[in-house]
User: Fold this.
Amino acid sequence: MLGSKLREVYSDMSDFTLNPLVLIGIGSSFAFSGLFYHLYQNKKQEVDELKKIPSFRPDQHLVKVLKASRHNRLHYAAVEGVVEADAEPLASRFVPRCFGVIQKISLREFWKYWNSVSKSWDIKAVNKKETNNFVPFSLVTHGSYNLDVYVKFQDPREFSSFILETVHHEIRCVEERLGEMVVEGLSGEKPVALEEVEELLRVGSTVTGFGEVVLEGDQVIRLQPPKDGRKYFLTPTDHRGFISQHEGVASLWKTLSAITGITGAAILTGFVYSFFEKNDDRSKKA
Assistant:
């Protein structure tokens, strides 16, 4: 009797036509759910590691911690503070009364090239020139009138990464004259626009640096590349904001994992329900 019942169910399943799109929907939903969950776990682990990094400000508390540490250094820590130039700050070339300690100016030309295959003009960007300037700078405590304690940076080129603020972005179209149009048309290429971008690490902005913290003398503190290979970088936010950004990414992956997983489960439930509903209708007719 059991064998006949199994044969009946198997016969019903063989008669049930499964839409390939349903299979694709179920499989892709669960696959994406697994991928997003994997990304969430990796990001969560990264956030947990970031929270273990000690965070300080350029003040007497940091000096006391360094003096109590072996060799007057912390092998890896985060220091949050306000950017202050150690020398004459860099003036923006485009924005009045705007000063920084790291400056990047890039110029790009956009050219049209005649494509003989498609019989049309293609636009390509050509890097024309990039200028990088910097001055030594330090981090000081926000709102502090006592600048005896500060954290020094010598050469920002040692950073593995840093993000600058775009203070100027302009695209100027190139005006064409009749004679130039004829020459350029014969050569198969012509300039169409020039893009100017200026980026700055501005004086007075709040940043957080990650690296090895060393006390030199009684008050001078330096942030430098770690000797254990960990990243030496600067982020344009306070320490709490930096961790919150990473927590937001982790939350996004977790949410996407849940949505795709629920979607896959809903499609699978709908498929199973349709199968048994069809089987029940056949039993009633029989």
In short: The longest strand covers residues 99-115. The two ends are 18 Å apart (CA to CA). Residues 108 and 270 are 55 Å apart (CA to CA).
